[in-house]
Amino acid sequence: MRQRIPVSTIMSKNLIALNRTDDLERAELLFKRHKIRHIPVVSGEVIVGMLSYSDLLRISFADAVDESEANVDTLVYNMFTIDQVMVKNVTTVDSQTSIKEVAKILASKEFHALPVVDNGILVGIVTTTDLINYLIDQY
C-alpha cells in the first residue's frame, strides 16, 4: 500500500449536517433516512460539533423505534438540545492528511468519525467504515 494517499480520496463529500438550532428529532430522522451513524453539527460551513447515533441512544430508547418508522417518540428529545448532546471539542483533519494518519487517529481514540476541514470549512467526513472499505479494495 502507498503511504501518502490523502484522506480526500476516501472521505464522504456529500455531507448530511445539522445546525446547532435543529432538534434531536430531526437528527434521528436523518440518521435513519440516510443510514448513517455520525452527523457534523455546523454553524454556516464551520464545524462546531459532532453528533453520533450512539449519543442519541444514551439519552433515549431510539433503538426501540423501528428503523423504517418515520415517527419517533419526541418526549426525551424535547428535554435536550443538540448543543447539550453533541461532542464539542472535535478532532479534525484536513483533506491532505494521509489515510494512514487518519487510521492512527481513529485507532487511538474512542470515536469512529473525523470531520475533514480545509481553511476552516467542513469539506467531508471520514469514518472507520470508509477505512475498512479502502482496505478491502486493496486486496
UniProtKB/TrEMBL annotation:
Keywords, sorted A to Z: CBS domain
Residues annotated as domain CBS: 11-67, 86-139
Keyword Metal-binding: no
InterPro entries named in the record: CBS_dom, Diverse_CBS-Domain
PANTHER family documented for this protein: CBS DOMAIN-CONTAINING PROTEIN (PTHR43080:SF2), CBS DOMAIN-CONTAINING PROTEIN CBSX3, MITOCHONDRIAL (PTHR43080)
Name of the protein described by the UniProt record: CBS domain-containing protein
Organism: Winogradskyella luteola
